[in-house]
Amino acid sequence: MIKNSVDLLYKLLFTVLAGVILKWLYDKRRRNRDDAAFAALHGCQPPQCEYKHRWPWALDLIKEHVATVLTDHALMLQVEFTESMGITFAAYMFGLTGYFTSDPRNIKAITETRFQDMNLGVRRPACYPFFGEGIFTQDGPAWKHSREMLRRQFARVQARDLETFTDQVENLVSTFQDSKGVVDLQPAFFRFTLATTTTLLFGESIETLPETEQSDFAKHFDSATLVTAIRLPLAHLSFLYNTPSYRKSCRVVKHYADYFIDKAFKYAQDHGQEDATGRYPFIFDLYTEYQDRSLVRDQLVNVLLAGRDTTACTMSWTIFHLVRHPAMLRRLREEIYEVTGSETVVTRAHTKNMPYLNAVLNETLRLYPQVPMNTRSTVRTTLLPKGGGPDGESPVYVPKNAGITFSPYHMHRRKELFGEDAHDYKPERWLDGKLTGIGCAYIPFLHGFRTCLGKDFALSEASYALVRLLQAYPNLRIPPGTGVVPTGKEKQMLSLVVSSLEGCKVVLDGVEVGSNVRPM
Ligand code: HEM
Q1: Which residues contact 491 (CB under 8 A, 6 or more apart)?
Q2: What is the C-alpha separation between 324 and 490, in angstroms, rounded?
Q3: Model-level pTM greater than 0.90?
Q4: Which keywords appear in this protein's UniProt record, sorted alphabetically (predicted)?
Q5: Is ligand 1 within 6 A of the CB of residue 311?
């Protein structure tokens, strides 16, 4: 009796297993047939370039990638590698296909015309411990909902003039009032953008905390950001890098965000909801939608991440290059003096009338896009419009579950797009109108559906701060004896953003803050 039951169980198991395998084979065959029909229908051709791996599963490519990321020139090496491969190429890793592209026509497809065929892929698991449930880890309806809510908040900020930045800009400027000798501006830019972004999100600056707590927050924020940046290229294996100290840093950052949310709720209790919503609009607008404090917190942490390092690094690279190009620095000073005269409160009307300042920021963001590499994963069979066939002009078929990496850092340095001097820092290229129709070849704030919501905020705060720094420090210059290396060959630190490993060292020779000295 027992023997019969066991036999029956084995037969049943065998039948189920055989059924599963047959179904899998059938689905696979059907998928291959459908995919072949899709490729034929769209005239797809095999990729013009393919990475020929030497080790199984392209482990050699992964090893080289990890070795590159650990250097001070990761992006420079990546540009060299990409140039040697081609504008669009495929690599077969772990039995999956990965595509790499720096072709603006493909970028348009990824960000706009074939947006629905892709999602964030490995970004969600890699970033989840830190980012939680927020706009940067979401896809589909959840992302749409987040974007709509946040868009309302940014529209509110965009409708105002720049006075929200005045206090923090003046704090930044006065930091160096009595400075003597060489000063590194980069850490100060990080403090500045942390203050502006926390004011935007939490209704008050992180600087309202005691000094020790501010440094505690910044330390854990930096360390969680760095580990998250290392987890990203580990893709599906990111769960392997989840140390106790990483978990602690994520917890500490969230704890501080919770602290500010609690403070806003206490304020509402003491002063009434209307008053509190006026003072803490970001927090209460999100809460009205979510009715869940942890979701509000995650969303705030997401925007904080988006806002702090990106803008600080943009400011830092701008000054880094201006002091290395005295004629450009002088031209910018003259423009600032022309437009602002003796005024030190900067307005939108001022910055709109500063084409050279805008060109300088465009050029910094071209050479140092603060999301230098980006990835997507396909959720259905799709295509990249270019990169296939012998001339690379045919579409390339891309199967479901394939990874697509695109590199604004590489694309922005392509000579075919920006000219022979593409690797040089040259704001003037933005002034003659020739780059007006550049479209998806220039995407520091991305393009299409997921385009940056904080663009106006970032450019406004950076412009305001740069204008005031140049007004207040007419002697700002490169420290004597600094070795100057060609653009792109500087030592860089690649985390989620790209910063200067050697900071932004300058001599300021403090003058009276508040003055606006005519350039000599
Ligand atoms: C120079 C500074 C900045 C640069 C270069 C930049 C760049 C970008 C890029 C490339 C993306 C798309 C990322 C992706 O999902 O693939 C993005 C998204 C975003 N950025 Fe920015 N950003 C900057 C500053 C800011 C600031 C200051 C804020 C807010 C205070 C902000 C808020 C956002 C948000 C909320 C998104 C998500 C949009 C979405 O997924 O729908 N950004 N940014």
Answers
A1: 72, 73, 500, 501, 502
A2: 12
A3: yes
A4: Heme, Iron, Metal-binding, Monooxygenase, Oxidoreductase
A5: yes
